[in-house]
Structure formats: structure tokens, C-alpha cells
Design a protein that fits this description.
Helices cover 31% and strands 21% of the residues. It has seven helices and 13 strands. The strands form three sheets. It has a seven-stranded mixed sheet with strand order 3-2-1-4-9-6-10, sandwiched between helices. Helix 5 (189-200) runs parallel beside helix 6 (228-249). The longest helix is centred in the last third of the chain and has 22 residues, at 228-249.
């Protein structure tokens, strides 16, 4: 897609040396730089690092633009058993959308690495008329890799993962989003952004089988019992977000409501090989 500009927003941080995020973040940075180089001349990619103010001087690749604008975390707004410095999703996206100026925004979790052709594939999907979409990751083995092994990591087929951690949307959709106090670092945060895209986009799709992003292992550290109150708070906040979106849309069809609110086997997933979603309604791919 000629002339396409992308602002890729990530939220790096300083993590404990033994944490999954500490291990994954360097691979994310390196893969983003390589993917931007691969797309050079075809897609103008700008990488925006939204940071907490007290982490403004953290080490980042020179190509990343620093946005040290975050002053609060979810633990500043409500009590939890263990204080965790988890940013609000709306604060991250607000900084990225306000300080960026590209037509489209990419938002990924900071532990999500990219295939070299990621940005070119995103441009191709936008060229097919999608103004918002989600790309599900592949999970590769959590082996002992270093940065020189990125080509081997690209080659790992991995396993599909149902979670949401890679989003693309037109920047002018963002002012319409309702995100409440949903925070990163636990469940339901991805569903909150997905719901906004599916309600506000003219042509939304979830791509469940594209080999475009990957994640090292699947330790599910956020599910530790000591962090249960974060998960519960996010789920309750997401339910408020979904209710607000449903009121705005004038009600949801039963299948779409299940897609947003149910989990596990109870959840209905639209057949994205046949349909896209517009304003919370499934329409055939052939529709204009």
C-alpha cells in the first residue's frame, strides 16, 4: 500500500531480571527494528515507546521515539494485595495517538516479537479494506535463545494462541474508544481493545492463523494466585466497558455478545473466513 504510515506503539519497562518480560523485551526490540528495515521504502514505520516518567532514561534502540508520559498505574487508583506498576491501556494509547501522526496505529504487547515481513503484511491487510484488525500470535518454545538466533526463531512454526496482543487500527478511530480503567499485565485487557475495534470499525477482522508474530513460551505468570485481584478487577472493568459499548451500539446480536463476553467453550467466535464485523454486526466478506 503506497504511502502508508504506521505508528507502532509499545510500552517498554524495567522488569525483574528473572521475569519473562525482561527476557522477551530485547527480542521484541530487535524484531521491530528488522521488520522496519525490511519494509523500508514501502511502509513508513515509526516506533513509539510510551514510558513511565521515572523510566524515561531506560535503554532503548536509537530508532525508538521516547514518550515518557505515564504518571499513574492501576495501583494508584484502587488497592491490591500486592502493588504492581501496571499502566492503564487508555493512558498508553492516548500518549501514542496524541504524539504520533500516522494514519494507522499498531499496538503490541512488549513481549510480542515480529516476523520480518510483519509491516508489509499489515499494509496488505489494510489494502484489502480493513480499518481495524487483530493478529493472533504463535507461541514458540521457551528455549535458550540469544539475539543472534532470531532467524531460527522466525523459522519456528510454534502453536496458535487465542489471546489478543497485536492490534492495528485507523488512528482517527481512537477518540471514540471506551477503555475505562482496564490495565495491562493481566487478562481481559486485549478483549477490551478488540471490543472497541469491533464496535467502531467499518471493517474489522480477527486473523487467527497468520504467522506474523510470536511469543517465547507461555508461562502465564499473570495467573499467580497473589495477582487474582488484578484479574478480577480487570474483568469487572471490562464488563463495564462492554456494557457501555453495547448501549452505544443500541444492542448486540447474541453471537457477537458471546464473542465479547464469554470465555472458553461457551464463547462463539465469528467465522472470519466468511464474515467481517461492522459496528458489532457480522457481514459477509463480499459486502462493500
Amino acid at each position: 500500500m503506497a504511502g502508508l504510515t504506521l505508528d507502532h506503539v509499545v510500552h517498554p519497562g524495567r522488569f525483574d531480571a528473572g521475569s519473562d518480560l525482561h527476557a522477551a523485551q530485547p527480542f521484541t526490540f530487535a524484531s521491530m527494528e528488522r521488520a522496519a528495515e525490511f519494509a523500508c521504502g514501502a511502509v513508513d514505520v515509526r516506533t513509539l515507546a510510551v514510558l513511565f516518567r521515572d523510566e524515561a532514561d531506560m535503554e532503548l534502540p536509537a530508532s525508538f521515539r521516547r514518550l515518557p508520559e505515564l504518571e499513574r498505574c492501576i495501583a494508584d487508583l484502587r488497592p491490591f494485595r500486592v502493588r504492581r506498576k501496571l499502566a492503564l491501556l487508555r493512558d498508553i494509547l492516548a500518549a501514542g495517538c496524541r504524539r504520533g501522526n500516522a494514519e494507522y496505529v499498531v499496538f503490541t504487547n512488549v513481549d510480542i516479537a515480529l516476523q520480518p515481513h510483519f509491516y508489509l503484511a499489515v499494509a496488505a491487510l489494510i489494502g484489502r479494506g480493513h480499518d481495524a484488525f487483530v493478529i493472533n500470535r504463535r507461541t514458540i518454545p521457551a528455549a535458550s535463545f540469544d539475539l543472534a538466533d532470531l532467524p531460527l526463531m522466525y523459522a519456528e512454526l510454534g502453536e496458535p494462541h487465542p489471546g489478543y496482543d497485536c492490534f492495528v487500527f485507523r488512528r482517527d478511530l481512537y477518540p471514540r474508544f471506551t477503555l475505562g480503567e482496564v490495565c495491562i499485565g493481566t487478562a481481559w485487557v486485549g478483549r477490551a481493545l478488540l471490543a472497541n475495534l469491533a464496535v467502531h470499525a467499518a471493517r474489522f477482522r480477527e486473523f487467527r492463523d497468520l504467522h506474523l508474530t510470536f511469543h517465547l513460551g507461555d508461562s502465564l505468570s499473570w495467573r499467580q494466585t497473589e495477582f487474582d485481584d488484578y484479574l478480577q478487577a480487570n474483568r469487572e472493568e471490562y464488563q463495564r466497558v462492554a456494557s457501555a459499548l453495547e448501549r452505544e451500539a443500541g444492542g448486540f446480536p447474541a453471537e457477537f455478545r458471546s464473542y465479547l463476553l464469554d470465555a472458553g467453550r461457551q464463547r462463539s467466535i465469528p467465522d472470519f473466513d466468511r464474515f467481517f464485523i461492522a459496528a458489532g454486526r457480522c457481514l459477509p466478506l463480499e459486502a462493500p
